[in-house]
Design a protein that fits this description.
The chain has two domains: about 280 residues, HUPs (Rossmann fold, 3-Layer(aba) Sandwich), CATH 3.40.50; about 200 residues, Isoleucyl-tRNA Synthetase, Domain 1 (Orthogonal Bundle), CATH 1.10.730. With about 500 residues, it is an alpha/beta fold. It has a four-stranded parallel β-sheet, with helices on both faces. The protein has a four-stranded antiparallel β-sheet with strand order 7-8-9-10. Helix content is about 45%, strand content about 15%. The structure holds adenosine monophosphate (AMP) and zinc ion. Zinc ion binds next to loops.
Length: about 500
């Protein structure tokens, strides 16, 4: 690993700082990302989080790390309300639709995979399910009971948060204080088995009507939601691993509880770098399944959602998302997508020119400066918007070389070509393919118009020549006359 590629800094939610990334085991990275609860179609907000971690995975691989990327499927244990209340989300859907819970799981797991494939995200190395790891979860509950930090009541087992907080810090990740939590919560109704409202379920007793149930030392029941991620991350990545990611909304209680469980079990902090991706919003509000404030990927690809003026390709949507930093909130609107589409086309057209740029004996520009700029952007906490801005700088250089205003040697053109392709295709995960047909037709149509303008000028019919140029300009297409003929560009 070269010096330029070994200075990756990542913002660690646990310390609140950007830190130099040093994996536990040299050249290897263990990364766990919380996956979806498969009880309905994923919306674009979910997709943004998975695209954010796809960028992380791709860049780590580009740097030469051997990455084990584990992303789970939550197919049991996630209740309707985070505070261990309500029906299991999957069971509820199964009951309402009168189908088997595993039919719900299958349907939405397939949707999840198809959607993420459309967005060109790479599959994880391991995709474990909660229901496939019940045995491991029961073992963890036993271990926590042995540590004295769990207690059993009526067939359910809870984690004793106050007792844990005597020797640990419950709130270490979210920055919350247990006293404030206690102060701000209402006391429990007489029906709850919990000693305190802050305690969370490790194992819940299944009521007779609960379909998803497994035998355990405490009777028939099902695991608490936070338990599966501790079980699966420990099993596949060890008691301590490098990166744990998820959406910002999972920081509390989900990830806070994961830390508490692992500390109770192994007396060590499970994760070196906690990463949280920020939310995609619609009309300024978080996209969410429960509120209906969301757009589904298919609605985006077909343009069928009334919020959208037209259809947008997965590549454009991905580009739109990557133009924002993963830790910033991003608001989706039709105008913002249209702007991203224009920008993306400009990028593709610039990159395509790289294939046959004029070659010179000397370079007037420093291509290493451009390439280092890509690394600097990504090494600064995966700053994809800065990377994209740097790529647009390179596109400007490409146009200058094309117009003869700058020069590049053959080896510099090749170097730039390789680096741009690595960053655009391998790291940003853009396919450059989806809009190409459209562009080819646009190219063909414009070359007809450019020829007609040439002809008009040759005939001294300047009125027609200017009309072609001005009318195209009014439509956002500007013609540029250069040494080697006329080219066109799209104004954003
Ligand atoms: P869920 O299926 O609800 O467990 O969510 C799957 C992933 O999507 C989690 O990492 C969530 O944090 C994330 N997520 C949910 N809503 C949004 C949103 N509006 N923007 C970005 N990520 C989200
Ligand atoms: Zn999780």
């Amino acid at each position: 690993m070269s010096e330029a590629t070994s200075s990756l800094h990542i913002f660690n939610s646990l310390s609140g700082k950007k830190e130099l990334f040093t994996p536990i085991e040299e050249k290897h990275v263990g990364m766990y990302v919380c996956g979806p609860t498969v009880y309905s179609n994923v919306h674009l907000g979910n997709c943004r989080t998975f695209i954010s971690f796809d960028l992380v995975y791709r860049y780590l691989k580009h740097l030469g790390y051997s990455v084990r990327y584990v992303r789970n499927i939550t197919d049991a244990g996630h209740l309707e309300h985070d505070a261990d209340e309500g029906e299991d989300r999957i069971s509820k859907k199964a009951r309402l639709e009168r189908i088997e819970p595993m039919e719900v799981v299958q349907r939405y797991t397939v949707d999840f995979h198809q959607t993420l494939a459309a967005f060109n995200t790479l599959p994880p190395n391991i995709e474990p399910t909660a229901t496939g790891h019940i045995v491991e979860q029961i073992e963890i509950v036993k271990g926590i009971l042995d540590s004295g930090l769990g207690y059993e009541v009526n067939g359910s087992v809870y984690f004793d948060v106050q007792k844990y907080n005597e020797s640990n810090n419950y709130g270490i990740l979210s920055g919350r204080k247990l006293e404030d939590m206690i102060h701000n919560t209402r006391s429990l109704s007489g029906q709850s088995d919990k000693r305190s409202p802050q305690d969370f379920a490790l194992w819940k007793k299944a009521e007779p009507q609960h379909i998803m149930r497994w035998p355990s030392p405490w009777g028939d029941g099902f695991p608490g939601w936070h338990l599966e991620c501790t079980a699966m991350s420990t099993k596949y990545l060890g008691e301590q691993f490098d990166i744990h990611g998820g959406g910002m909304d999972l920081k509390f209680p989900h990830h806070e509880c994961e830390i508490a469980q692992a500390e109770a079990l192994n007396q060590k902090s499970p994760v070196h770098t906690w990463m949280h991706a920020n939310m995609l919003t619609l009309n300024g509000k978080k996209m969410a399944k429960s509120t209906g404030n969301n757009i589904l990927p298919n609605e985006l690809f077909s343009g069928s959602n009334p919020v959208l003026s037209k259809a947008f390709s997965p590549d454009v949507a991905r580009f739109f998302m990557l133009q924002a930093h993963y830790r910033s909130i991003l608001d989706l609107s039709s105008d913002a997508l249209e702007a991203a589409e224009k920008g993306y086309k400009r990028l593709i057209q610039g990159i395509e020119l790289l294939a046959d740029l004029p070659i010179s004996n000397k370079s007037s520009a420093d291509v290493n400066m451009h390439i280092n700029g890509y690394y600097d952007a990504m090494n600064d906490d995966f700053n994809s918007p800065i990377l994209i801005a740097q790529l647009f700088d390179t596109v400007k250089l490409i146009h200058r070389v094309k117009q003869g205003e700058d020069t590049l040697t053959k080896s510099d053109v090749e170097k730039l070509h390789k680096a741009v392709h690595h960053f655009v295709i391998d790291v940003l995960g853009l396919t450059l393919a989806s809009d190409q047909n459209e562009d080819t037709y646009l190219d063909k149509a414009l070359s007809v118009l450019i020829d007609m303008r040439e002809q008009a000028r040759a005939n001294k019919d300047f009125a027609t020549a200017d009309r072609i140029r001005d009318e195209l300009l009014a439509k956002g297409i500007h013609l540029k006359d250069g040494k080697d003929g006329t080219t066109y560009g799209l104004s954003s």
